[in-house]
Write a sequence for this structure.
């Protein structure tokens, strides 16, 4: 019954979103080339409940023929389950697209559920954390759409409430219930997508390799490699097949907030957020996106994956599967931004996700 009530709330919220309007104004500062797009930010998932806030997007050089584009996004949200998020990110190209700078900073207050670590995790404990993160990437074009460079990432987590004698306590090892990780690493990026918002063709590949060490301010030492591979194929007019492969390999004393996570509104939809986590993981998912009528589109999706302390622990019998279907509403004909409504199912649960932009 509780799930049914949440579903009704979510569907009602979609109607309110549509009536309230995501047909947003664009303002262009005369003579500067900047386009400012303020957006009401509203979404619903089974993990957050109803959420609302505001989003501001600033773009310069957003035409395909323009060189050195710059993109800045700031957001503030508050959810029905008292989760707070403040974030800002940017990406800019310089010197005729030869150099790329990316950055992100965020503050999160997130009451959450801890299900345990590993493919057979079955606990369910409530906890709260305050998390601050900072990330900076400096990249240089190597060849065509291939960029390579360095990254620095700093995370600080304060566990403000948790069961001191519960399963989560063994992963909170820092002084005064805090954990700090400081990471240095390398990045390779390939991006030939036709659009960052709604790709119709092309591919995207990102490979990250980074280390945390006490020598540069980390409470734990570990090594992580993460890959994200996506491809998009136009099968018929307006019909798109999207596929994604994700992988994580971790070694060392990896804290809870840096472990690979499966479940939520992007990977293995149908499982709760962070339902499974461990040092290593893989996930495969595909999605068929088809037109329905006018600004309405539909999609069906399927995914599989698992977690483990290392890839040697992966077993076919432990593979988790999920799938579902959804609708897309494009309220502004001049933009690729869409409202996403997905219902995902897994053998143990289901999830409802109402937000902006595609899962991948």
């Amino acid at each position: 019954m509780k799930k049914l009530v949440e579903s009704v709330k979510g569907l009602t919220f979609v109607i309110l979103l549509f009536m309230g309007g995501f047909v947003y104004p664009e303002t262009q500062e005369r003579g500067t080339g900047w386009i400012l797009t303020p957006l009401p930010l509203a979404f619903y998932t089974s993990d957050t409940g109803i959420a609302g806030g505001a989003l501001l997007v600033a773009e310069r050089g957003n035409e395909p023929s323009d060189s050195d584009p710059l993109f800045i996004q700031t957001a503030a949200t508050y959810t029905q389950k008292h989760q707070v998020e403040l974030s800002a990110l940017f990406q800019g190209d310089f010197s005729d697209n030869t150099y790329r700078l990316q950055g992100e900073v965020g503050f999160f207050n997130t009451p959450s559920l801890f299900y345990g670590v590993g493919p057979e995790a079955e606990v369910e404990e409530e906890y709260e954390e305050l998390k601050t993160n900072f990330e900076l990437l400096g990249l240089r074009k190597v060849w065509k759409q291939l960029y390579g460079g360095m990254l620095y990432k700093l995370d600080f987590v304060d566990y403000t409430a948790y069961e001191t004698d519960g399963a989560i306590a063994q992963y909170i090892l820092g002084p005064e219930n805090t954990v700090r990780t400081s990471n240095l690493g390398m990045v390779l990026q390939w991006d030939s997508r036709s659009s960052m918002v709604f790709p119709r063709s092309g591919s995207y590949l990102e490979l990250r390799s980074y280390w945390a060490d006490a020598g540069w301010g980390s409470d734990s030492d570990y090594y992580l490699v993460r890959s994200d591979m996506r491809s998009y194929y136009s099968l018929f007019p307006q019909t798109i097949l999207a596929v994604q492969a994700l992988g994580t390999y971790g070694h060392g004393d990896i804290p809870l907030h840096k472990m690979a996570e499966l479940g939520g509104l992007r990977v293995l939809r149908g499982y709760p957020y962070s339902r499974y986590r461990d040092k290593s993981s893989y996930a495969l998912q595909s999605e068929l996106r088809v037109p329905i009528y006018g600004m309405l589109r539909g999609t069906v999706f399927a995914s599989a994956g698992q977690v483990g302390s290392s890839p040697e622990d992966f077993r076919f019998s432990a593979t988790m599967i999920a799938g579902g279907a959804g609708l897309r509403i494009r309220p502004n004909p001049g933009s690729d931004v869409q409202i996403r409504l997905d219902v995902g199912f897994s053998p143990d649960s289901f999830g409802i996700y109402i937000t902006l932009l595609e899962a991948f």
Remarks:
- The chain has one domain: 2-356.
- The helical segments are 2-20.
- The radius of gyration is 21 Å.
- The chain has one helix and 19 strands.
